[in-house]
TrEMBL record:
Start and end residues of each Lon proteolytic domain: 108-289
Matching InterPro entries: Lon_lid, Lon_proteolytic, Lon_Prtase, P-loop_NTPase, Peptidase_S16_AS, Ribosomal_Su5_D2-typ_SF, Ribsml_uS5_D2-typ_fold_subgr
Subcellular locations according to the entry: Cytoplasm
Protein known as: ATP-dependent protease La Type I
Single GO biological process annotation from the record: protein catabolic process
EC number(s) reported in the record: 3.4.21.53
Matches recorded under PROSITE patterns: LON_PROTEOLYTIC, LON_SER
GO molecular function: ATP binding; ATP-dependent peptidase activity; serine-type endopeptidase activity
Top class in the EC scheme: hydrolase
Species assigned in the record: hydrothermal vent metagenome
Amino acid sequence: MEIIELSGYTEDEKVQIAKRHLVAKAMSNNGIKSSEIDFKDSAILDIIRYYTREAGVRGLSRTISTICRKVVKEVVLKKRKSRAIINAKSLSKYLGVKKFRYGLAEEHNQVGEVTGLAWTSVGGDLLTIEATTYKGKGKLNYTGQLGDVMKESIQAAMSVVRTRAKELDIADDFQEKLDIHIHVPDGSTPKDGPSAGAAMCTALVSVLTGRKVKADVAMTGEITLRGEITPIGGLKEKMLAALRGGIKTVIIPDDNERELSEVPDKIKGKLNVIKVKWIDEVLDIALEK
């Protein structure tokens, strides 16, 4: 038996599905007329981003139906005499406080803080990676509920930094005088996978050299001990997350060029996508001079 993997819908696809099918279906099922309710695009987009988190559209359909039922109740109880305009501002009245949030790019360049790109079963997201150093004896700490594969990526990134210490103007004996701590925020969420290797290495180099990381740059890619950046999965979802989060430049592995053709032009056209083969290229792009 062959397993066929299907990627989830993008935000634009969900918006179009809702406009063409889900809204009309919900209105029909709940007995409400177009003269009584009007869903704006901004409301549908915010429902997708803040009130549902899924690969498909079942939750989106249920949420739209919930709004329709509440408007019907207002009409029946004669609490509403005019058409209900459902936009981004009025959503909280019908759905309450936002249930989810998505990652946003940092406003300022900072030392030791890198934006990675993560893939989940419900889409992509930005992954903040922080690194700091303090006096110690070379201990490497990592926190943020990291899985075994991600911990191995940190070890590999550290080995790359140590072998390139002279080229990067890092003291040869830094591992004997400093402890390093890597943290991935949102500690309640388990994180794993090898695709943050390049970001981990960039965070380490930044904190050890004092060079700031550009806030509008995000990256994805596994790293080898030779410093090669190897391909990853979920490229379309990751690039959508980058665009949504305000990222301007995305660094991806050179071997992911084939997957790049699957990314909608609407997303690629708004991002500066740079393909790299080695970690040296990543550092030149992501770090201030």
